[in-house]
Amino acid sequence: MISAPEPSTQFHTDADRTTADEPRRAAVRKALGNYKVARGKTESAFTSWEHARDAAAAIKYEGVNHLDKYLREFEEKFTARGGKVFWASNSAQAREYILGLARERGVKSIVKSKAMTSEEIHLNDALEKEGYAVVESDLGEFIQQLMHEPPYHFVFPCMHLKREEISALFERELGSAKTDSPEELTMIARRFMRRHYIDADMGISGGNFIVAETGMISITENEGNARLTTALPKIHVALIGIEKMVPKLADLALLLPMLATAGTGQHLTCYNSMYGGPRQPGELDGPEEFHVVLLDNHRTRLLADPEQRDALHCIRCGACLNVCPIFKNIGGHAYGTTYQGPIGSVITPHFRGLQDWKHLSGASSLCGACTEACPVKIDIHHHLLHNRRNAVQEQKVWWERLIWFGYVELMKRPWAFKIAMRLAPLGQKLHALVLGTRLDPVGAWTKTRAFPQAAAQSFHDYWQERKAARK
Amino acid sequence: MNGDRAALLARVTEALRVPAPLHHEKPSKPATHSVTAPFREWLPPVGASPAEQVALFAKQSEVLRTEFLECPSPEAAAQHLGKLAQGHGWKRLAMHRGRLADTVAASLPGSLELLRIDGGYEKNALEACDAGLTECESLVAQTGSVCVTARSSGGRALSVLPPHHIVIASRGQMVPDLAAAYEHLAGKYGATYPSFISFISGPSRTGDIERILVLGAHGPKKLTVLLMP
Questions:
Q1: Which B residues 139-178 touch A at CB under 8 Å?
Q2: Fewer Cβ close by (within 10 Å): the C or N end of chain A?
Q3: How far apart are the C-alpha atoms of A63 and A166, rounded to whole Å?
Q4: Which of A297, A330, A345 is the last residue of a domain?
């Protein structure tokens, strides 16, 4: 058995490979260029996008900073309408509950709409291992499921694939005819999925917002697959992170248009649906049971860090990925995380261990495009710096400390500094001997960049010389 | 069984002991409405008069590829549906009972078979229908959206399972924005909201393949909104 590589090794290997894949990068760049244009247009229709951001941040701040109160309120309202709430501290508890439910109710087939939380807890693997057929109904997720690959981007799961690849995949997996029309490919998936909505006895969804005031969850989608998943099967299970809280139903009047604008550049996503309980008396359809699984899975660890707590405001619009120069070049898979891009680099170390995932904080140019694009004003790029600082404070690196110690001692003594400057050109001559070999002490730098030339004369010496000449 | 409730809530409370700094400005204007919304004025502008709102809804419909038509009477609406039925070769139309829906249904051509789902329905039968006709709660001018609920629009599936969704609305149902749509729902239902509320903005769509827009991903391929006086 081959053991999995360290996350940072995997990251560096994958990033090197994906960055060299020029055609793929061009395709991603083109898609994200179109996003930028669409978003700019929609954003400018707002009377004031900047004020709207403040208002949106205020709503999420209130929800997250009084989370205990609002979770209780949600539970009370939701259960009063016949819903069931399950509180899961970790992924094992969430998986066990959903599996137990499927076993108890004699479920045979399960249809799923997009839920990043289910990627997070590896729900499909667990269900399939127990013999349940699970079908992803979102087109992008369905394609990724057939590819046996995780999503590339948490909003656009298969943005890295070209139509020829998808056509070949469908030919192989579904026996459909070859086509180069995205429309025809979509229709193949549509026809395939229809049966599943009707036959499935359990529908699993995620959720974009939890509404405390009315005991509802809200789901945003374009395709209608979540609506079908939550309308036809007799059991509906929604798996949702506790941080998705908003206090009032009317808060969605702001957050839904902002999610759409920042996420895809639409004024409003095609379907924004709020679900408050299973089928109620007097209603003619809908599931008999509605279970909401509230997932912690280390979110409380992030909550306990006031400095970075606002990272829990995230509404998963994906805007920070779309504008990130790193994401554009290395792509989504290199991160090796459920949540990719800048926000993923901020939250993953909290969810899965700082020392194992601290390298993601370095995968940033600190340009701040992510922070600027964020509709709920998360201080993303500063949090990357905070993670770097925390990682070093938590576990000091001996050779880094040694270098800093030497540097400080050197800088305190002008005479030593002067000698070091004189020796630099000589040192560089010696460096040339090991350049490109494993002995190169700055190999990480010189592998992709030229090392700057030390000047033959220091600025200090030059200044003294000039002064002397003037006299 | 509700899982790790006590432990999870205790962790949340413990985590929140130290307050977090603000990264945003406090909203500068006080709330002007009872249910909403200190933020209303930051969203895209909407005209105050009904005529402006209908015009904006029509403009947004065009962007969303919704077919939007003002009909002077139920007969005119039925006539348009007759044309659609003929043009697309519809055989069966699913619908629910309702004041507006019934007046239109009364003038539909007899050749069109109607599936009334108020007493329940067989999933396969509904799936086999060519179109689904529903009423709605409100029409949202700002975004060109139709607000449907389980109570007002024939449950959850009628407006999403058949390939063509037809909405019958009256002019009085036009509201300026989402905030107003929520106010209307709060006023109408109080604490007993329907179990399903949805804002529908255009026919079902996807951009998952090369970010190219395709209509009719899993839900309706077409959306028609008929507005009566």
A1: 142-145, 150-151, 154-157, 160-161, 177-178
A2: N
A3: 41
A4: A297
In a domain, B198, yes or no: yes
A57: in domain: no
Interface mutation vs chain A, best among B199, B208, B221, most A CBs within 10 Å: B208
Q: In this structure, what are the phi and psi dihedrals at residue A271, rounded to the nearest 5 degrees?
A: -125, 120
pLDDT tens-digit series, residues B39-64: 888 999 999 999 999 999 999 999 99
Q: Considering its fold, how many domains does chain A have in total?
A: 3
Number of domains in chain B: 1
* Chain B residues close to A297, C-beta within 8 Å: none
Co-location of A432 and A326 in the same domain: no
**C-alpha to C-alpha distance for B13 and A300, rounded to whole angstroms:** 9
Domain assignment of residue B127, given as a range: 46-202+212-228
Question: Are residue A445 and residue A463 in the same domain, yes or no?
Answer: yes
A359 burial (CB, 10 Å; 0-12 / 13-18 / 19+) is: buried
Task: Give the tens place of pLDDT for each residue, A351-405.
Answer: 999 999 999 999 999 999 999 999 999 999 999 999 999 999 999 889 889 999 9
Q: Write down which residue in A362, A393, A424 finishes a domain.
A: A393
pLDDT > 90 in chain A, percent: 88
